Amino acid sequence: MKRLLTSVEEAPVVERDGYHYLVHPISNGLPTLDPALIREVVNGIVETTALEDVDKIVSPVTMGIHVAAAVSLVTDIPLVVVRDREYGLPGEASFERPDGETLYVNDVQAGDRVLVLDDLVSTGESLAAVVEALADVGAEVVDVSVVVRRVDTDTVLTDLDVSSLVDVHVHADGAEVVDIVEL
Ligand SMILES: O=P(O)(O)OC[C@H]1O[C@H](OP(=O)(O)OP(=O)(O)O)[C@H](O)[C@@H]1O
Ligand SMILES: Nc1ncnc2[nH]cnc12
After folding, report:
1. Which residues does the UniProt record annotate as the domain Phosphoribosyltransferase (predicted)?
2. Is any ligand 1 atom within 6 A of the Cβ of residue 148?
């Protein structure tokens, strides 16, 4: 995953309220996202995930959506987005994210086998909340995948298994790749 490796190594790190933020094309939509990088990432997800068991890809807002759409396009697996907006459709479920924002699950039914796909995991709090909400509606979470796992934060994930394409340590002056899927 040459492009993914280079893109992480070249990604700027900015500080926001004492928190170091990786400004990577996949997780921020900037710097400019090279189509060849998305292709490489999609190929990585397809190669490392048991997609034959998946009925639906579920992507939480916001920055997992472009990756999830690209994976949906090449696999023909339908995609549903967990939104930060209430629609009031029949069966809509809601849950609170750790930051206090309410998210809404629509069109995931009991028994659906889902792949949860997001751009990045750090503490894991966001994904844990999504997975819990999906379990509450009776879906079976087959896999939870991200492109980037940040390994320098305290994880709150205990029994949730998240697969990643690249694991990074974010420093004040840049990101260090500590593990990457070999393809
Ligand atoms: O593992 P955690 O510590 O919970 O952090 C990971 C979350 O942070 C990012 O989202 P962000 O809140 O930046 O929102 P965005 O996707 O809308 O940019 C990312 O997309 C994950 O959802
Ligand atoms: N883009 C990002 N970089 C570093 N940590 C994050 N946590 C959530 N999003 C992040």
Report:
1. 38-152
2. no
C-beta of 156 in contact with ligand 1 (< 6 A): no
Cα 138 to middle of ligand 2, angstroms = 30
Q: For ligand 1, is residue 122 a contact (CB within 6 Å)?
A: yes
pLDDT digits (tens, 9 = 90+) for 136-153: 999 999 999 999 999 998
Residue segments in the chain with a per-residue pLDDT below the cut of 70: 157-158
Instruction: Give the domains, in start order, of the chain with CATH numbers.
Output: 38-169 (3.40.50.2020)
**Beta carbon of 164 within 6 Å of any ligand 2 atom:** no
* Residue 154: per-residue pLDDT: 81
- ipTM more than 0.85? yes
Amino acid at 4: L
